[in-house]
Amino acid sequence: MSDTTGKQSREWNYHPDLPLQDPSVFRWPPRPGFLLRWFARNWLTLSERVMMVILAVVTWLTLYPSLETAQSFAAGWILQTWALNMGLVIAVAGGLHWYFYMRKGQGMILKFDRRGQAKGNRLWSFSNQVHDNMFWSLTSGVFFLTAFQVVTMWLMANGIAPTITPASNPVWFVMTLVLLPIWSAFHFYWVHRLLHVPFLYKYVHSLHHRNVSIGPWSGFSMHPVEHLLYVSSLCIHWIVPTDPILLIFHVIYLGPGAAMTHTGYEDLLIKDKRRLALGTFYHQLHHRYYECNYGNQEMPWDRWFGTFHDGSDDATATTRARKKKMHA
């Protein structure tokens, strides 16, 4: 029997049980059992995060330039880093797009929105949603991702940014690995709130929000100003002692990882079983209703600041009223 429990409604092809519950690790009072299950689900199974760690280790050991090479800026290693980042984004976003939207490997099962990717609409560059998203992801997106990574590697190579190794600081290495996605969620929430200031939304963030029905190429499709703010999450490596593997994990999390969270599907099914978590209905609600769910489920900010949409009709009415007031 297919493990695809969920419901259909007038608005959605599929949605999880509503109202959405609170999966944040920052619950109070703390629940040790919940925290252990959260850790096991994310770090002790073949989750998307563990897959990113494996990819980071393999690419660092075999493909990315060494820190010794990065001691001075030179076209060779910078272009090597750019080409590898380009390849990773194409492989992940392109692979997911091929499987879900070209091959239709999962049909409509676990797909939130009934609509597909738009064509023949002048809203999009090239009158094509996928081509528009590819353009912004592969030009501005890969450029800023590579620029911040190159500067960070140069800082590490020259002893300006503090560094560790997994062998010398194994506990700190593992702690940092677990905390980096939480830091990214914290950074993303506040940058995202800034981008929803009406002026910045109109001239910057609206480019990303043209994607109401999202797909893998939507995740990293942003205005250059938004890419600059979004990728600045990597600046944490300039201050906190980390390692090139942690840096590359962070790069993959921000770039190719955005394609995974924007597939438009909740999970990847293999033999009718949920095997890999992808998008969340939490963020899908943001793309539909805009002024809600600015963060993600790692952090409690939306609940604390009254911008949480739990999928209910009452929450939709509240969100629409807030949007009308903000953009009056």
Architecture blueprint of SSEs:
Blueprint: H1 32-43, H2 48-62, H3 75-102, H4 129-157, H5 170-195, H6 198-209, H7 224-231, H8 244-254, H9 256-261, E1 267-270, E2 273-277, H10 281-289, H11 301-304, H12 313-326
Antiparallel strand pairs: 1-2
Description:
- It is a single chain.
- The chain is built from 12 helices and 2 strands, in the order αααααααααββααα.
- It is mostly helical and 328 residues long.
- It has one domain.
- The protein has a two-stranded antiparallel sheet.
- A hairpin with a 2-residue loop joins strand 1 (267-270) and strand 2.
- Helix 4 crosses helix 7.
- The chain starts with 31 loop residues before the first helix and ends with a helix.
- The model has no long low-confidence stretch (mean pLDDT 94).
Short description:
With 328 residues, this protein is mainly alpha-helical.
- Spatial extent as radius of gyration: 20 Å
Helix content: 40-55%
**Poorly predicted runs of 5 or more residues:** none
**Cross-sheet strand order for the largest sheet:** 1-2
Average residue-wise pLDDT:
94
Q: Please give the alpha-carbon distance between the first and last residues.
A: 49 Å
Oligomer: single chain
Number of helices: 12
Structural class: mainly alpha
SSE string, helices as H and strands as E:
HHHHHHHHHEEHHH
Measured by DSSP, the beta-strand proportion falls in under 5%
Q: Which word captures the global form?
A: globular
Number of domains: 1
Number of strands: 2
Instruction: Characterize the largest beta sheet: strand count, sense, and whether it forms a barrel.
Output: 2 strands, antiparallel
